[in-house]
Queue: 2 jobs
Job 1
Amino acid sequence: MIAELGLVALWLAAALAGLQFLAGFGALWTKMQGLADLARPAALVQALLCALAFVCLLLVFARTDLSVALVAANSHSAKPLIFKLAGAWGNHEGSMLLWVTVMALAGGLIAAVERRLLERTMLATLGAQAFVGLGFYAFLLFSSNPFERLSPAPLEGNGLNPLLQDMGLAFHPPTLYFGYVGLSVAFSFVVGALLTRQVTPEFARVMRPWILGAWVFLTLGITAGSYWAYYELGWGGWWFWDPVENASLMPWLAATALLHSASVLAARDALRAWTVLLGVIAFSMSMIGTFLVRSGILTSVHAFAVDPERGSFILALLTLYIGGALVLFVVRAGTVAEGERFSVMSREGALVVNNVALSAILCVVLLGTLYPLLTEAFGVRVSVGPPYFNPVSAMFFLPMLPILAVGPLLRWRRDSFARVRASVIALVLLALTVLLGVWLWAGVAILPLLGMAVAAMVAVGSVLPLRGRSLRKLPLAVWGMVVAHLGVAVALFGMAADSAFQQERLIAANVGDVVEVGPWAATLEGVVPVAGPNWQAIEASLTLRYQGGDGTLTHPQARAFWQPPQETSEVALVTRWNGQLYAALGNQTEDGRWQLRLWWKPFVTWIWYGGMMIALGGLLALLGRLSVDVRRRLAAGKIARRKADEQVLAA
Amino acid sequence: MRVLLALVALICAAPLAAQDTLPPAPYAYQQLADPAQEAEAAALMATLRCLKCQSQSIADSDAPMAGDMRHQVRTRIAAGEDPEAIRQWLVQRYGDYVSYQPRVSASTWPLFAIPLLLALLAAFILRGRLGKRREPGA
């Protein structure tokens, strides 16, 4: 019954999206006020219905209702409740329902609160939002129905991939989806602004919180995903330029560029066409990411060709939205005036460099991700991995970062080099000192070396804007910028330090053996079998000592799940401020010894601290912008009331 | 469970191990004694694809085939072979797919040409947007 209720709610929500689409665009061209009045309520009710459908899905998963095909395929009665719930979106159908739900909630929110833009622009935006939504409703209802029944119901479910039975991964996909959906809202605003020729600073200000929110979620999602791969896969890698990872990185790169160009548009009314184009690209990257992950094309181009239904559907949606938006852009770009001008030495100038570099990196990642798929379609299999992505993306990253260090020091519109000369010279000297110092001291490879030098420069450059300003009066958005830029430096340093100084030890040890790796000594105290709710494991007791200090007793496990049968490695981590010791237990060798894999990873945690700082910076900026918006709205309300009072008095 | 699996694997592998009491790939999970050689091997292994996995290098996989390949790489490095020669040997055996480092060829040149074009395009755009944009009167 619950499943049917969910399905009905979903169909009704789809119908309302159709109404919202007709109302939004219909009112735009027919000027029928009756239609226009329907758009906002349709968006609101649609949001409620979608939320209801999603709650229904959560309920059937919580109860492990095995007569629902999706539950039978992805859940199991012996699973802990939290993973039963996470299982609701840990699969194709459920995750698409989550996507649609978040999108409907976002649409409902803008319908409820956003009143700053011209009503015509808002109607076009809501119409565009509904148009995008309709495609996803069709996809859900026609090819990925999450509420499909199974008859007869099986006695037990298939279980969830054990790799996914982890808190990190339970919340990683929704985080990314929030990001994707935020970009879909930005996309709708772009379409609305293009259709009604209203690419204005006000448009950028309205769109900016959505970009910031999306960007915060994408940053968190990527950071969490990277940490998950690091500790769950058992080999200590944190980024492999895997197509799935790239699928989340590409929207982030586009959103980062969009965020900065929207700031220029909001503050200075420049970069109009460029901002609009980036808005289209950012959502395109979300769609491409979804297509890559959801179509099965990554497993094999041929697997996709054999069962192309879902993939083709997403590809058709992608072509429709992106193609349509690009055509609209080409048609209207001519009517979008270029905007205000600025000189090279200006905040805008630095942001243009940032935008161009980020776009170039985006192209490189897109190329390296899609190229193997393209050649595979022609029967040639090639692999593109870290040896390609690292240097080629660094080619654009490394010139961009020094500009990042200097850019925030510049004034808008026009600045003179003389004003920032001292800071620039100091930053360059700092970078050279670090470069030379690290090279002489440790002789590390060229990319990590450059990474550390640039990280030092960005770290100092990012806090320089605080100099000479009252820290208490500083707007929250400026704090956000400082924290996020500092986060970039911290993450970059972590990446460079881990690549340069990581130490690895693979060894077969007897109980009682002491293994040394870097400054650490590990003692294998014992190995015992243990059992959990849906797994059993071999667990080692491993005492880890840093430079002969107090030992920490850890328990790395080699786990075997039985439904579905799969083995995972539960690693032991000891975190210090200057890095992490990473220990994994492997197989038993024939002579009865145990395989141990130990890594000392100096400063590796800084990668994720940096990622969290970037997200925190985005959050601060978002709160700063929103609080200004709220204050403005309250002030405007007060003025309006006073005017009304005066009129009453005058009468 | 693990021990059982290991036993099954052992029985299956018995014909291979018949001539030799050593396990089939001793260097799959064992580092080379010389740290410089091990570093060379590790760098190479990180750029070779595990053909039985999805998007993992042979350095990051428990798959038996990855273990075999690690053994191959380590023994060849220990014998003094050049890492790039080993890569070539593996590419001849398994095709370009095995190496995460694409080489310039008739089917891969766009991978290298396009970033260069991008760099040119970036320089061109920056010149166009910034170069001639002098403030009137500046």
Job 2
Amino acid sequence: MLINHPLLGPRDAAEFTCFGDASLLLRPDPGPNGEPDQAAMDAFHDYLHLRDNPAGTHQELWYHEQGDRSWLVVTRDTINHSIIKVELARNVKARNLKTREGAG
Amino acid sequence: MTEYQLRETAALGNTLIETEGGMLMEETGIALAAVTIRTGKARAFANAFSKRYDCPPPDPRSAVTVRRQTIIASALDQVFIRRKGEPAGLMAQLEKDFSQSATVTDQSDGWVQLALTGIRAGDVLERLAMIDCSDQAFPVGSAARTVMEHCGVIIVREKHKPVEGKRYLLLTQRSSAETVLHAILGSPPFRQ
Amino acid sequence: MDADFRLKGGLINRRKPLDFSFNGAGLSGYAGDTLASALLANGRHFVGRSFKYHRPRGILSAGVEEPNALVTIGTGAMADPNIRATVAELYDGMVARSQNHLGSLEWDLLSVNDAFSPLFGAGFYYKTFMWPAAFWEKLYEPMIRRAAGLGALSGQDDPSRYDKGYRHCDLLVIGSGPAGLMAALTAGRAGLRVILAEQDFIMGGRLNAERERIDGMPGAEWAAKACAELTAMDNVMMMPRTTIYGAYDHGVYGALERITDHLNDGEDGDGGDQPRQILWRIYSRRAVLAAGSIERPIAFGHNDRPGIMLAGSVREYANRYAVAAGRRVIVFTNNNDGWRTAHDLRSRGVEVAALIDTRSDIDLPAPAGVRVIQGSAITDTKGRTRVRSITLMSGEELACDSVAVSGGWSPTVHLTCHHRGRPKWDASIAGFIPAGEIPPGMDVIGAAAGKMATSEALQGGITAGTSAARDLGGKTVKMAMPDCEDRAFGIDPVWHIPSSRARAWVDFQNDVTTKDIRQSHLEGFRSVEHLKRYTTLGMATDQGKTANIPGLAVMAEISGKSMDEVGTTIFRPPYTPVPIGAFAGRGRGPDFMPTRIPPSHRWAEERGAVFVETGLWLRAQWYPQPGETHWRESVDREVIATRSSVGICDVSTLGKIDIKGADAGEFVNRVYANGFAKLPVGKVRYGLMLRDDGFVMDDGTTARMAENHFIMTTTTANAGGVYRHLEYCRQCLWPELDVALISATDQSAQFAVAGPNSRRLLEKIVDDGVDLSNAAFPFMACGAITICGGVEARLFRISFSGELAYELAVPARFGDALARVLMQAGEEFGVTPYGTEALNVMRIEKGHATANELNGQTSAHHLGMGRMLSPNKDFIGRIMAHRPELTRGDGIRLVGLKPVDPAKMLSAGAHFLEADAPSRASHDLGWMSSVAYSPILNSSIGLGFVKNGYERMNSTVRAVDFMRGTDIEVEITSPHFIDPEGRRLHD
């Protein structure tokens, strides 16, 4: 598989590690310091443990471990592996990410 | 006053291996610094860079050699700068040049610097590197950070004198340099 | 003198005769022969025994599709089983043996299986070997293992060297027949970077097997001319002996290049300096599949005897290898192509006793002197180790010594299916052609696309090459269409002869007959996927290249379905077998993974250290002294020496991350559970790092060297993971922070100097002006200093051992020298180098947690560090760390353990149970995470997690280790066995 790095061009996927759903970027608001309330715990539980598993377009996080150490958001079709878009994670605004179905 | 002194040890013992069509040499005595552009300071950095080197910073896939220094695009918002001599001197110069726009870290000892030269130098990379190191895709001035035999490596295509043959600079981390050396010597032209 | 069945001409090199042996018999052939062609030249057809029934088998084909002629080539460690003789390039001194017989090939004791054939029908193993149950392990399985399989491995290590490589091109052309050559020429002349891959050892594909002419010259000559032009082009790479075995994502193809298989490597693989094979990853922007087609047989009674071959292969042996398949050949066909074999054999002077066509009213020119029988079929054959006659539908028997069978040609679509492409049926050629999701960027041309005429192949090549050139920025070239001779294609889809009473084979290699397919259907296994698995049709090493289509067709007939309705199974890589050694490449033995060595490694080797692998690192485990015979002697000594005077240990392997920037403090504060924002410059602090799910990820000490400069350490094992985590936080969570990270693990050599005399030792090597007094450099201080006459260093007063201790870091180039200087300067104190074992003993004596305790399943509260979760800031892991299960008061707690009987040894991994509790998981109280023998306390000690550990202080539980069979009473104590108040740290 090749990842078309936005700055470096196509690179073999062997240079990267995949970390799954890019919803990991949407870290919930943790609320006030100290012991958290139930709402925060529920939000973090969802954020950390619940995932859609689409057959089709999927936004995921890839880390260019053996390259420039950049984190990327890759939009990939899980059925035929075609890669539709690759962006630097830091450029992806939170609101541009597809939120999980039913997530707040 | 302490009577003890510390002598330097080269990671690969200043190795130099020659074969038909290729030569591999460990380069020592070359300071290496990582210069990381501070958040929001890209323009300030570019200005400071031009002031020092009379040219813009290298693009993500390239390296420039100017004023006896080689500047390599190594990571997001980061360049490596190479200069013959003691690390302290280079760090001092860079800290002065880029005090506002970047942070400077000495990496002279973390990396081993290898010069791979010869008409068949490219044969090594064809066996070990997944990126396209051909003349078309990787002309002089190209740089890439990638992996060889599970070891991270920075590859720079440099000008070679005499004109025949190619010259590559390989930077790899010190602790696994012997593994990388072994991999290079197990490839053509060093081994068929 | 030529062997008996040699003809004139061919593409072999008669100036290079070669000697070889088969089953001990010395034979000869020529350069350009395969083992199969050389055997046939010597009249040897009977070369193996079939898988199940051990029936005598001969060579069926001339290519990779060969199901029968599997041999073992080579001797000693180089003996390689299951080689298809039809693609084994002959070399001088080749030693080949037949396989799969008990006793000799001629008198195989297992041929008795054939008599029991009714018992070995489809799926017999699902119905047998079940009773009695005990017999499975003792009798049935060993029996089956002996009988199963074809060849046998040498049992020795594979001495061959394999390599890997990476090539890039604009256009990958797969196959060098007329279609592929035209595509390569077109694209090559247009200036594209082309790779032309051909699995055979000469280029030209089918042109080498046929007598047709292109541009007025023999096809083989035209191919050679095209290859000469391609070879001269700098932008074209020719790769013969290279199989493209897989089509992967995004234009990446897997290729296996055979470098030395055609050379004599002797018994030890010492044939030369080259690797045996290279596994290439080819990155292409576009690809052209010109893989041709593969002929299939017809199933009739006893169609598996030696001498019964594919018709196209018979003429390939005649035309390319100058070998006659027999003296009296019968041709049996359902299509026009079989007629070419009759013509070619006659023109070379081989007698063709009859040409039998299942069709009637065929108006093709018949070869002179050949009896043509239309509208008929073969129903049976006779002959044990060689066919000697056939029987027609009419009952007439005809004598022969070879039968050339043509059931039609199947396009070689395999690579088009590697992305789940589903071929579709083309009735005009009675074959499947590529369809569905074929790999993006791939064009299929020529016979592989079902275009069977030579002109279609040539035109397809021009079209594909031109389109690639246009799309990829090549020059425009005008390609002239070569002159060629086309033949009309006509076929009657006859797959089997129903009037055959005897068994009729479909899959020769797995011994599957039409009867098996009928039985499969009868028992309800009717889908193509079930048919395959139930009968094993298509599951052998040839993956059904000659069997799949006929098998499907028979099933379709029985089910009353169309071929499209039946479909095919999915072809997956590899197209032909790839040795596991080729996938391994250089990754064997010590080369499997990189080795990382710390700066003092050479010095440690000189001192005779024993090393241990810690992840990728080699670390000194202990440094035996002369006279020491057991590791405990060395380790005990190192611990005592360090605690009583001074020891040094290379700790360079711990991860070091350099953190700089205006927001460096804020960044560090957010990734650690405990506070760091207010850490003063010149101080170090222990940091606890959590994952966002609340579990402890790592720990380390982080030093503030300057207002905006921190150096973080991590455990050795987690260095990469923590760095990745920090980059994730920096780039993904908080890109607005002004912070830069860089790994500095290899930049410095770092030594722990520990023990009551550690300060005195260091005072001898630091430069004037460096004040190491307790007041100037207290516990947890850090700073930049110089040593040994101006060498820049960093000193950290931290202690893993619990003694007065420091860690000294210098640029790695001085690491070797520093180890030696510390030993010299410390000689007066009896300085002792210590390794990871002593390091571990001492940290357990102090109760310090490491990876054993920070195993990803424990929380801050479990570790007794609940109070380190800062209430004053947000940090990674804060929310989930407060989950009730992780914080509950009666949860597991890290405690110390001592055996009640001081003579007993604790074992790590033991689980804790109450004295009277049954030994079951439901009564589990926790586990022992680390153990060591303390030479200070003269006792085995341990750290572990016990439920309600603090309430249970000083009580006893049992430590049960089922693996080692021990059950010991242990006392729960404080984990700080030595100097619990930490007085030594502050000396």
